[in-house]
Amino acid sequence: MRMPLLIILLFALGGSWARPGDSRVQTKAPAPDSPAPRGWVLFPKPSKDSAALRCANYSTREWRVSLSGEQLQIRLAEDRDLQDDLPAVIPLKNVASSPGDRHVISVSDGWLVGVDAGEFGGGIWWFSTDGLRNKKLSNENVHGFVNTSQGTLALVGLAHLGFDFGKVLRIVNEDPVNKRTEILTDLDSAPATFVAESPDSTIILTSMGLVRLKTSGSVEQLLKTNYESLFPTSMTLSSSGVIHVGMRHFVTRLTPTGNTYREQWFVPANCARFAMRNHDCVCNPGHR
What pTM was estimated for this model as a whole? Predict the structure, then answer.
């Protein structure tokens, strides 16, 4: 008679439970203090090594967030999100055919192209405005470029197996022959996604948490968290300072509270319960 009593107590306390060997994620979310994005519901923050995180790590659904004015937009990531289009003046060879994510940004004297192919390497290339001249500036894995008051910065690094390192490089705009990169600062962990906060600061989500990068090179720790297994794809910053992060299976909201952030996790309303099936994390909308 102890088992029924235990189950009753668990439900009364609002806890989470699962039968041994049951991969279903069964939770009861607390009431949110602010509305969830339309079509989404609040999900209790998963604990480290939880069934929810293990399942989400295998999810084939990755979410991208963006802002239309102050309105949050959420959509599924697509293959086209992985590679920025190359300008027509840059030939479709060499860097164009490099595997991995590709980032392109316009600079005063041409274009910068960055590639991140994970453990297979990466690089930064400069191309002149007409595409006739080019120079490879770095072999680092590039996670993106950001224009600042002090010039263009490249966020680089790698988190793979036992490796986890990240840096910020500054593009030194000398003449084409002497154009180069220099290290602005060490992030200690690979950058995943980022958003410009001002011409002098950028908010970066690394493997270990949220930081603020200043163009002086100083790095301020804002929030310790670990989304590494969820492969964050994108980040937004509202005028009130609220951050949303799109990633595998989940979207999170980070709301400023004094010197830190309040973290909320969300899943689609039709995916409040989910389970591993055939190496995928699938929704169980009809499960009771």
Answer: 0.84
